[in-house]
Amino acid sequence: MSATTLHKELCLKSHPTNIVLIEPFVEDLCRRLEVAGELYGNILVCITEAVNNAILHGNKSNSDKEVHVEVSSDKHILTCTVSDEGMGFDYNHLPDPTAPENIEQIGGRGIFLMKHLSDVVIFSNDGSNVEIRFRL
For residue 93, what is the DSSP state? Predict the structure, then answer.
């Protein structure tokens, strides 16, 4: 893995079809940082889930609103911040998607996945901003 430093940004209109722009963004990011394998997959899933949540839940798929994705790295840490223009949410009281009553629910696993596939997840701005960190 490279000791490259990097800063990269992406701004999306909040329309669900724009989620397809995340994979090439992450592919380019990981290629530049020489990240592959399981870590690449974890980064892709986490950023995709964060952007999906921002579009659907934060901005309510309002294409007049935007989602901002910003990534930066130093020698050892990749930090990704996803921000939406929504009102936020109570990130301290989320249902456990592994609880028996939630197992068959269609959604509700994105934040669970982000927390389990990354090293750090920090919500701020009442939940309309999430920072996800990965050790490189």
Answer: S
Query: Kind of pairing, strands 77-83 and 6-13?
Result: unpaired
Q: What span, in angstroms and rounded, lies between the C-alpha atoms of 83 and 71? A: 12
C-alpha pair distances (Å), 99 with each of 53, 90, 118, 125, 127: 21, 19, 21, 28, 23
Check if the beta carbon of residue 108 is closer than 8 Å to that of residue 102.
yes
Q: What is the pLDDT of residues 76-92, one digit of tens each?
A: 999 999 999 999 998 88
Three-state SS across 85-127?
A: CCCCCCCCCCCCCCCHHHCCCCCCCHHHHHHHHCCEEEEEHHH
Give 24-42 pLDDT, tens digit per residue. 999 999 999 999 899 999 9
Residue type, 85: E
Amino acid of residue 11:
C
The model's pTM is: 0.91
Per the DSSP assignment, residues forming a β-bridge with 82 are 69, 130
